Amino acid sequence: MFYAQPYTRDQAVPAPQPLHNARATLVGSSKKSRSPESRMEETRRQAEHRVDNFLKYADRYRLPFTHEDLKAKNNERKPSLKGKYEKVCTSLDKPEVASRPFSAQYYDQDGKPLFFYLGNRWLDDKESEKPIIDLGDDYDKQYVNRRYEDMKTGQEQGRKLAFDGIMGNALHSFHESTQKLCSALQPTVTGPEIRHDWSQDDNPRVMRYTVEGSDKQAEERKGVIHLVQGWIQQGQKDKGLFLSSPLVTSSKGIGEVKCYYNKTSMITATLAIMFKKLFPASYKKYKTAFEAGQWFETDPGPWLGRAIVYKLQGALHSDRKDFGPSACFPCGFFSGGEMLVPQFHAKFTYLPGHVCIFESADIWHKVATFQPSPHDPTRNGTTPGRISTVFFFPKDSYDILKDKEKGWGRLTNYGNSGELKDMIPQ
Ligand SMILES: [Fe+2]
Protein backbone atom coordinates (compact mmCIF):
# COMPACT_ATOMS: atom_id res chain seq x y z
CA MET A 1 0.00 0.00 0.00
CA PHE A 2 1.29 3.48 -0.86
CA TYR A 3 0.61 6.56 1.22
CA ALA A 4 0.49 9.87 -0.60
CA GLN A 5 1.22 11.72 2.65
CA PRO A 6 4.52 10.93 4.34
CA TYR A 7 3.41 11.94 7.91
CA THR A 8 6.15 13.51 9.95
CA ARG A 9 6.79 12.93 13.64
CA ASP A 10 4.56 15.78 14.79
CA GLN A 11 1.82 15.52 12.21
CA ALA A 12 -1.42 14.80 13.98
CA VAL A 13 -3.25 11.58 13.16
CA PRO A 14 -4.69 11.56 16.64
CA ALA A 15 -5.75 8.68 18.77
CA PRO A 16 -9.46 9.37 19.15
CA GLN A 17 -11.20 9.99 22.45
CA PRO A 18 -13.25 6.98 23.51
CA LEU A 19 -16.98 7.71 23.73
CA HIS A 20 -17.21 6.88 27.39
CA ASN A 21 -15.11 9.06 29.61
CA ALA A 22 -12.90 6.12 30.60
CA ARG A 23 -14.45 4.59 33.68
CA ALA A 24 -12.29 3.28 36.49
CA THR A 25 -11.08 -0.30 36.07
CA LEU A 26 -13.20 -2.06 38.62
CA VAL A 27 -11.99 -5.50 39.50
CA GLY A 28 -13.63 -6.12 42.89
CA SER A 29 -17.38 -6.47 43.14
CA SER A 30 -19.05 -3.06 43.41
CA LYS A 31 -22.10 -4.59 45.12
CA LYS A 32 -20.25 -6.04 48.07
CA SER A 33 -17.80 -3.24 48.66
CA ARG A 34 -18.59 0.39 47.96
CA SER A 35 -15.71 2.59 49.09
CA PRO A 36 -12.59 2.79 46.88
CA GLU A 37 -10.51 1.38 49.77
CA SER A 38 -12.72 -1.66 50.26
CA ARG A 39 -12.90 -2.26 46.51
CA MET A 40 -9.13 -2.17 46.36
CA GLU A 41 -8.98 -4.61 49.24
CA GLU A 42 -11.46 -6.89 47.47
CA THR A 43 -9.40 -6.63 44.25
CA ARG A 44 -6.26 -7.70 46.08
CA ARG A 45 -8.05 -10.57 47.84
CA GLN A 46 -9.44 -11.89 44.54
CA ALA A 47 -6.05 -11.51 42.85
CA GLU A 48 -4.33 -13.48 45.62
CA HIS A 49 -6.82 -16.30 45.31
CA ARG A 50 -6.42 -16.44 41.53
CA VAL A 51 -2.60 -16.40 41.60
CA ASP A 52 -2.63 -19.16 44.22
CA ASN A 53 -4.71 -21.28 41.82
CA PHE A 54 -2.36 -20.44 38.96
CA LEU A 55 0.64 -21.58 41.02
CA LYS A 56 -1.14 -24.74 42.06
CA TYR A 57 -2.69 -25.87 38.78
CA ALA A 58 -0.86 -24.26 35.80
CA ASP A 59 1.68 -26.43 33.93
CA ARG A 60 5.22 -26.21 35.31
CA TYR A 61 8.33 -26.62 33.19
CA ARG A 62 12.05 -26.79 33.97
CA LEU A 63 14.33 -25.27 31.33
CA PRO A 64 17.73 -26.79 30.50
CA PHE A 65 19.74 -23.71 31.56
CA THR A 66 20.17 -21.36 34.49
CA HIS A 67 19.37 -17.67 34.71
CA GLU A 68 23.10 -17.04 35.13
CA ASP A 69 23.77 -18.90 31.85
CA LEU A 70 21.40 -16.50 30.07
CA LYS A 71 22.99 -13.45 31.69
CA ALA A 72 26.51 -14.60 30.76
CA LYS A 73 25.51 -15.25 27.15
CA ASN A 74 23.78 -11.88 26.83
CA ASN A 75 26.75 -10.06 28.36
CA GLU A 76 28.97 -11.36 25.56
CA ARG A 77 26.88 -9.10 23.29
CA LYS A 78 27.56 -11.23 20.22
CA PRO A 79 25.49 -10.08 17.21
CA SER A 80 25.23 -13.75 16.19
CA LEU A 81 23.06 -14.42 19.25
CA LYS A 82 20.34 -12.06 18.08
CA GLY A 83 20.61 -13.52 14.58
CA LYS A 84 20.09 -17.00 15.98
CA TYR A 85 17.04 -15.96 17.99
CA GLU A 86 15.64 -13.98 15.06
CA LYS A 87 15.70 -17.20 12.98
CA VAL A 88 13.71 -19.02 15.67
CA CYS A 89 11.15 -16.19 15.75
CA THR A 90 10.80 -16.25 11.97
CA SER A 91 10.10 -19.98 12.10
CA LEU A 92 7.44 -19.42 14.80
CA ASP A 93 5.76 -16.34 13.29
CA LYS A 94 3.78 -18.32 10.71
CA PRO A 95 0.02 -18.98 10.79
CA GLU A 96 0.58 -22.74 10.40
CA VAL A 97 2.70 -22.90 13.57
CA ALA A 98 0.41 -23.50 16.56
CA SER A 99 0.37 -21.21 19.58
CA ARG A 100 -0.24 -22.00 23.22
CA PRO A 101 -3.10 -20.17 25.05
CA PHE A 102 -2.68 -22.23 28.25
CA SER A 103 -1.07 -20.79 31.36
CA ALA A 104 2.46 -21.94 32.12
CA GLN A 105 5.28 -21.53 34.64
CA TYR A 106 8.92 -21.77 33.60
CA TYR A 107 11.76 -22.28 36.07
CA ASP A 108 15.47 -22.47 35.40
CA GLN A 109 17.63 -25.53 36.02
CA ASP A 110 18.07 -24.49 39.68
CA GLY A 111 14.35 -23.95 40.21
CA LYS A 112 14.49 -20.15 40.03
CA PRO A 113 11.46 -18.45 38.43
CA LEU A 114 12.08 -17.12 34.93
CA PHE A 115 8.84 -16.72 32.98
CA PHE A 116 5.12 -16.90 33.77
CA TYR A 117 2.32 -16.85 31.23
CA LEU A 118 -1.10 -16.20 32.73
CA GLY A 119 -3.71 -17.22 30.16
CA ASN A 120 -6.30 -20.01 30.19
CA ARG A 121 -6.49 -23.28 32.13
CA TRP A 122 -9.00 -26.13 32.11
CA LEU A 123 -11.24 -25.72 35.12
CA ASP A 124 -11.43 -29.49 35.61
CA ASP A 125 -7.63 -29.93 35.44
CA LYS A 126 -6.97 -29.76 39.16
CA GLU A 127 -4.30 -32.36 39.65
CA SER A 128 -2.74 -31.44 42.96
CA GLU A 129 1.04 -31.30 43.24
CA LYS A 130 1.42 -30.94 39.49
CA PRO A 131 4.78 -32.49 38.55
CA ILE A 132 7.40 -30.26 36.96
CA ILE A 133 8.15 -31.33 33.40
CA ASP A 134 11.79 -31.30 32.31
CA LEU A 135 11.84 -29.79 28.84
CA GLY A 136 15.44 -30.81 28.10
CA ASP A 137 15.99 -30.08 24.41
CA ASP A 138 12.48 -31.15 23.43
CA TYR A 139 10.59 -27.87 23.46
CA ASP A 140 7.65 -29.52 21.65
CA LYS A 141 6.65 -30.99 25.02
CA GLN A 142 5.12 -27.66 26.01
CA TYR A 143 2.61 -27.93 23.15
CA VAL A 144 1.25 -31.43 23.84
CA ASN A 145 -2.54 -30.99 24.31
CA ARG A 146 -1.87 -27.31 24.86
CA ARG A 147 -2.35 -25.80 21.42
CA TYR A 148 -5.03 -23.23 20.59
CA GLU A 149 -6.80 -25.91 18.54
CA ASP A 150 -6.84 -28.21 21.60
CA MET A 151 -8.58 -25.46 23.55
CA LYS A 152 -11.24 -25.04 20.84
CA THR A 153 -11.85 -28.81 20.65
CA GLY A 154 -12.19 -29.08 24.42
CA GLN A 155 -14.65 -26.18 24.52
CA GLU A 156 -16.76 -27.85 21.81
CA GLN A 157 -16.86 -30.93 24.04
CA GLY A 158 -18.19 -28.80 26.90
CA ARG A 159 -15.03 -28.31 28.95
CA LYS A 160 -14.88 -25.02 30.85
CA LEU A 161 -11.93 -22.66 31.11
CA ALA A 162 -10.49 -20.79 34.06
CA PHE A 163 -8.74 -17.50 33.31
CA ASP A 164 -5.59 -16.32 35.07
CA GLY A 165 -5.16 -12.94 33.32
CA ILE A 166 -6.95 -9.57 33.41
CA MET A 167 -10.72 -10.09 33.23
CA GLY A 168 -13.13 -8.65 30.59
CA ASN A 169 -14.78 -5.58 32.16
CA ALA A 170 -11.62 -4.41 33.85
CA LEU A 171 -9.73 -4.90 30.59
CA HIS A 172 -12.26 -2.89 28.57
CA SER A 173 -12.10 -0.02 31.07
CA PHE A 174 -8.31 -0.19 30.95
CA HIS A 175 -8.48 0.07 27.14
CA GLU A 176 -10.70 3.17 27.41
CA SER A 177 -8.40 4.80 29.97
CA THR A 178 -5.32 4.09 27.85
CA GLN A 179 -6.88 5.40 24.64
CA LYS A 180 -8.04 8.51 26.50
CA LEU A 181 -4.49 9.13 27.75
CA CYS A 182 -3.08 8.59 24.26
CA SER A 183 -5.63 10.97 22.74
CA ALA A 184 -4.41 13.66 25.16
CA LEU A 185 -0.65 13.00 25.11
CA GLN A 186 -0.20 11.54 21.60
CA PRO A 187 2.35 8.71 21.41
CA THR A 188 5.37 9.29 19.18
CA VAL A 189 7.91 7.31 17.19
CA THR A 190 11.16 9.16 16.70
CA GLY A 191 12.78 6.65 14.37
CA PRO A 192 13.89 3.02 14.11
CA GLU A 193 14.72 1.59 17.53
CA ILE A 194 15.22 -1.79 19.11
CA ARG A 195 11.82 -2.72 20.50
CA HIS A 196 9.61 -1.92 17.54
CA ASP A 197 9.69 -3.10 14.00
CA TRP A 198 10.13 -0.11 11.76
CA SER A 199 10.79 -2.16 8.63
CA GLN A 200 7.64 -4.19 8.18
CA ASP A 201 5.28 -1.21 7.94
CA ASP A 202 4.84 0.77 4.78
CA ASN A 203 4.17 3.73 7.05
CA PRO A 204 5.65 3.26 10.50
CA ARG A 205 3.79 6.19 12.06
CA VAL A 206 0.27 5.41 10.87
CA MET A 207 -2.01 2.39 11.27
CA ARG A 208 -4.77 2.01 8.70
CA TYR A 209 -7.91 -0.06 9.31
CA THR A 210 -11.26 -0.74 7.72
CA VAL A 211 -14.64 0.34 9.12
CA GLU A 212 -17.42 -2.23 9.35
CA GLY A 213 -20.43 -1.58 7.14
CA SER A 214 -18.65 0.88 4.87
CA ASP A 215 -15.90 0.95 2.30
CA LYS A 216 -14.11 3.61 4.33
CA GLN A 217 -10.60 3.27 5.65
CA ALA A 218 -9.51 5.06 8.80
CA GLU A 219 -6.07 6.08 10.01
CA GLU A 220 -4.60 6.41 13.44
CA ARG A 221 -1.28 7.47 14.87
CA LYS A 222 1.15 4.87 16.25
CA GLY A 223 3.83 5.38 18.86
CA VAL A 224 5.02 4.96 22.43
CA ILE A 225 4.51 6.90 25.65
CA HIS A 226 7.00 6.34 28.46
CA LEU A 227 5.68 7.24 31.89
CA VAL A 228 8.57 7.00 34.34
CA GLN A 229 8.56 8.53 37.82
CA GLY A 230 12.30 8.96 38.11
CA TRP A 231 14.32 8.42 34.93
CA ILE A 232 17.84 9.39 33.98
CA GLN A 233 18.29 11.63 30.98
CA GLN A 234 19.93 9.70 28.16
CA GLY A 235 23.54 8.86 29.01
CA GLN A 236 23.59 11.27 31.99
CA LYS A 237 23.31 9.05 35.04
CA ASP A 238 25.45 11.47 37.08
CA LYS A 239 22.80 14.18 36.74
CA GLY A 240 20.28 12.09 38.67
CA LEU A 241 16.59 11.36 38.15
CA PHE A 242 13.80 13.36 36.53
CA LEU A 243 10.18 12.81 35.58
CA SER A 244 9.97 11.45 32.01
CA SER A 245 9.02 14.06 29.42
CA PRO A 246 5.39 12.97 28.62
CA LEU A 247 4.59 13.73 32.27
CA VAL A 248 5.66 17.35 32.02
CA THR A 249 5.96 18.60 28.44
CA SER A 250 2.35 19.67 27.94
CA SER A 251 -0.24 21.41 30.06
CA LYS A 252 -2.23 18.17 29.97
CA GLY A 253 0.62 15.94 31.12
CA ILE A 254 0.55 15.63 34.90
CA GLY A 255 -3.24 15.94 35.24
CA GLU A 256 -4.02 13.31 32.59
CA VAL A 257 -1.39 10.91 33.87
CA LYS A 258 -2.44 11.21 37.50
CA CYS A 259 -6.01 10.42 36.51
CA TYR A 260 -4.86 7.52 34.29
CA TYR A 261 -2.88 6.03 37.20
CA ASN A 262 -5.95 6.34 39.38
CA LYS A 263 -8.33 4.75 36.88
CA THR A 264 -5.97 1.86 36.21
CA SER A 265 -4.94 1.36 39.83
CA MET A 266 -6.91 -1.85 40.40
CA ILE A 267 -5.25 -3.54 37.44
CA THR A 268 -1.85 -2.34 38.65
CA ALA A 269 -2.68 -3.74 42.09
CA THR A 270 -3.65 -7.07 40.50
CA LEU A 271 -0.33 -7.22 38.60
CA ALA A 272 1.50 -6.33 41.81
CA ILE A 273 -0.07 -9.33 43.59
CA MET A 274 0.97 -11.59 40.70
CA PHE A 275 4.50 -10.19 40.91
CA LYS A 276 4.67 -10.55 44.70
CA LYS A 277 3.67 -14.23 44.57
CA LEU A 278 5.69 -15.19 41.49
CA PHE A 279 8.93 -13.27 42.15
CA PRO A 280 8.85 -12.57 45.93
CA ALA A 281 12.53 -11.58 46.27
CA SER A 282 12.41 -9.10 43.36
CA TYR A 283 9.09 -7.71 44.56
CA LYS A 284 10.59 -6.76 47.92
CA LYS A 285 13.45 -4.88 46.26
CA TYR A 286 11.13 -3.08 43.83
CA LYS A 287 8.75 -2.02 46.57
CA THR A 288 11.46 -0.30 48.63
CA ALA A 289 12.90 1.47 45.58
CA PHE A 290 9.42 2.38 44.30
CA GLU A 291 8.46 3.97 47.60
CA ALA A 292 11.59 6.11 47.40
CA GLY A 293 10.96 7.16 43.79
CA GLN A 294 7.15 7.33 43.60
CA TRP A 295 5.80 10.70 42.48
CA PHE A 296 2.11 9.95 41.87
CA GLU A 297 0.23 8.65 44.91
CA THR A 298 -2.47 7.28 42.55
CA ASP A 299 -0.02 4.65 41.23
CA PRO A 300 0.12 1.68 43.62
CA GLY A 301 3.43 0.45 42.13
CA PRO A 302 5.80 -1.31 42.49
CA TRP A 303 7.00 -0.64 38.92
CA LEU A 304 8.42 2.87 38.52
CA GLY A 305 7.96 2.88 34.74
CA ARG A 306 5.18 2.17 32.32
CA ALA A 307 5.52 2.03 28.51
CA ILE A 308 2.37 2.27 26.44
CA VAL A 309 3.08 0.74 23.06
CA TYR A 310 0.29 2.14 20.95
CA LYS A 311 -0.52 0.12 17.79
CA LEU A 312 3.15 -0.49 16.93
CA GLN A 313 4.53 -3.76 15.58
CA GLY A 314 7.10 -5.45 17.83
CA ALA A 315 10.74 -6.35 17.21
CA LEU A 316 12.98 -8.94 18.87
CA HIS A 317 14.83 -7.57 21.91
CA SER A 318 15.79 -8.04 25.54
CA ASP A 319 15.33 -5.17 27.99
CA ARG A 320 18.89 -5.04 29.26
CA LYS A 321 18.52 -1.54 30.74
CA ASP A 322 15.79 -2.78 33.09
CA PHE A 323 16.26 -4.33 36.49
CA GLY A 324 14.61 -7.70 37.06
CA PRO A 325 11.14 -8.81 36.00
CA SER A 326 8.64 -6.75 34.04
CA ALA A 327 4.96 -7.41 33.36
CA CYS A 328 3.00 -6.80 30.18
CA PHE A 329 -0.36 -7.52 28.60
CA PRO A 330 -2.17 -6.47 25.42
CA CYS A 331 -5.62 -4.98 24.89
CA GLY A 332 -7.45 -3.97 21.74
CA PHE A 333 -8.89 -5.62 18.64
CA PHE A 334 -6.48 -7.53 16.43
CA SER A 335 -5.42 -10.91 15.08
CA GLY A 336 -1.91 -12.34 15.47
CA GLY A 337 0.35 -10.58 18.01
CA GLU A 338 1.52 -13.79 19.72
CA MET A 339 4.37 -13.59 22.24
CA LEU A 340 7.47 -15.33 20.86
CA VAL A 341 10.27 -16.43 23.20
CA PRO A 342 13.11 -17.89 21.14
CA GLN A 343 15.27 -19.12 24.08
CA PHE A 344 12.72 -21.87 24.72
CA HIS A 345 10.87 -21.86 21.39
CA ALA A 346 7.62 -20.66 22.92
CA LYS A 347 4.72 -19.16 21.01
CA PHE A 348 2.01 -17.93 23.38
CA THR A 349 -1.36 -17.00 21.92
CA TYR A 350 -1.26 -13.79 24.04
CA LEU A 351 -4.84 -12.66 23.64
CA PRO A 352 -6.11 -9.42 25.22
CA GLY A 353 -5.76 -9.71 29.00
CA HIS A 354 -3.21 -12.55 28.91
CA VAL A 355 -0.26 -11.53 31.10
CA CYS A 356 3.47 -12.25 30.83
CA ILE A 357 5.68 -11.61 33.87
CA PHE A 358 9.29 -12.51 33.29
CA GLU A 359 12.99 -11.70 33.55
CA SER A 360 12.82 -9.49 30.48
CA ALA A 361 16.39 -8.16 30.82
CA ASP A 362 17.73 -11.65 30.04
CA ILE A 363 14.91 -13.34 28.14
CA TRP A 364 14.60 -12.25 24.52
CA HIS A 365 11.06 -11.67 23.30
CA LYS A 366 9.14 -10.49 20.28
CA VAL A 367 5.48 -9.81 19.59
CA ALA A 368 4.51 -11.50 16.32
CA THR A 369 2.96 -9.54 13.47
CA PHE A 370 -0.61 -8.42 14.13
CA GLN A 371 -3.42 -7.09 11.96
CA PRO A 372 -6.01 -4.61 13.27
CA SER A 373 -9.58 -5.96 13.20
CA PRO A 374 -12.23 -3.97 11.30
CA HIS A 375 -13.62 -1.07 13.35
CA ASP A 376 -17.10 -1.47 14.82
CA PRO A 377 -18.47 2.10 15.06
CA THR A 378 -21.24 0.98 17.44
CA ARG A 379 -18.65 0.09 20.08
CA ASN A 380 -17.64 2.46 22.93
CA GLY A 381 -15.31 4.44 20.72
CA THR A 382 -12.28 2.27 21.31
CA THR A 383 -10.55 1.72 17.99
CA PRO A 384 -8.88 -1.37 16.45
CA GLY A 385 -5.25 -2.39 16.70
CA ARG A 386 -3.11 -3.64 19.52
CA ILE A 387 -2.03 -1.69 22.60
CA SER A 388 0.55 -3.18 24.93
CA THR A 389 1.31 -1.84 28.38
CA VAL A 390 4.67 -2.77 29.86
CA PHE A 391 5.35 -2.30 33.58
CA PHE A 392 9.11 -2.04 34.21
CA PHE A 393 11.83 -0.67 36.51
CA PRO A 394 14.86 0.99 34.85
CA LYS A 395 18.13 -0.37 36.25
CA ASP A 396 19.77 3.06 36.59
CA SER A 397 16.76 4.34 38.56
CA TYR A 398 16.89 1.28 40.82
CA ASP A 399 20.59 1.82 41.54
CA ILE A 400 19.90 5.37 42.69
CA LEU A 401 16.72 4.60 44.65
CA LYS A 402 17.51 1.29 46.36
CA ASP A 403 18.90 2.85 49.54
CA LYS A 404 16.82 6.03 49.68
CA GLU A 405 14.04 6.82 52.17
CA LYS A 406 10.35 6.51 51.39
CA GLY A 407 9.14 9.71 49.67
CA TRP A 408 12.69 10.83 48.80
CA GLY A 409 11.95 11.52 45.11
CA ARG A 410 8.88 13.68 45.66
CA LEU A 411 10.18 15.53 48.71
CA THR A 412 13.65 16.36 47.40
CA ASN A 413 12.99 16.50 43.63
CA TYR A 414 15.11 13.33 43.39
CA GLY A 415 17.89 14.93 45.42
CA ASN A 416 18.17 17.86 42.99
CA SER A 417 16.98 20.19 45.76
CA GLY A 418 18.99 18.76 48.65
CA GLU A 419 18.49 15.82 50.99
CA LEU A 420 15.61 15.00 53.31
CA LYS A 421 17.63 15.57 56.48
CA ASP A 422 18.31 19.15 55.38
CA MET A 423 14.65 19.87 54.77
CA ILE A 424 13.31 19.37 58.24
CA PRO A 425 12.23 22.80 59.55
CA GLN A 426 14.40 23.79 62.51
FE1 LIG B 1 10.45 -5.85 26.21
Topology of this protein?
Elements: H1 36-57, E1 59-62, H2 67-75, H3 79-92, E2 104-107, E3 113-118, E4 120-122, E5 132-134, H4 148-156, E6 161-163, H5 168-185, E7 206-210, E8 217-221, E9 223-232, E10 241-243, H6 253-263, H7 265-278, H8 280-293, E11 305-310, E12 326-336, E13 339-341, E14 346-348, E15 355-358, E16 366-367, E17 370-372, E18 385-392, H9 395-401, H10 408-412
Parallel strand pairs: 1-2, 1-5
Antiparallel strand pairs: 2-3, 3-15, 4-6, 7-8, 9-10, 9-11, 11-18, 12-15, 12-17, 12-18, 13-14, 13-16
Helix pairs in contact: 1-7, 5-6, 7-8
Bound molecules: fe (ii) ion.
Region (Disordered): 1-48
Biased composition (Basic and acidic residues): 34-48
Structure overview:
This protein has 426 residues and is of the alpha+beta class. It folds into two domains: 36-163, no CATH class; 168-419, Double-stranded beta-helix (4-Layer Sandwich), CATH 3.60.130. It is 29% helix and 20% strand. It is built from ten helices and 18 strands. The strands form four sheets. Strands 1, 2, 3, 5, 9, 10, 11, 12, 15, 17 and 18 form an eleven-stranded mixed sheet that branches. Strand 2 (104-107) and strand 3 (113-118) form a beta hairpin. Helix 1 runs parallel beside helix 7 and helix 7 crosses helix 8 (280-293). The longest helix is centred in the first third of the chain and has 22 residues, at 36-57. The chain is globular. The protein starts with 35 loop residues before the first helix and ends in a 14-residue tail after the last helix. The model is unreliable at 1-6 (pLDDT under 50). Residues 195, 317, 319, 360, 365 line the site of fe (ii) ion. Fe (ii) ion binds at residues 195, 317, 319, 360, 365. Residues 1-48 are annotated as: Disordered. Residues 34-48 have a biased composition (Basic and acidic residues).
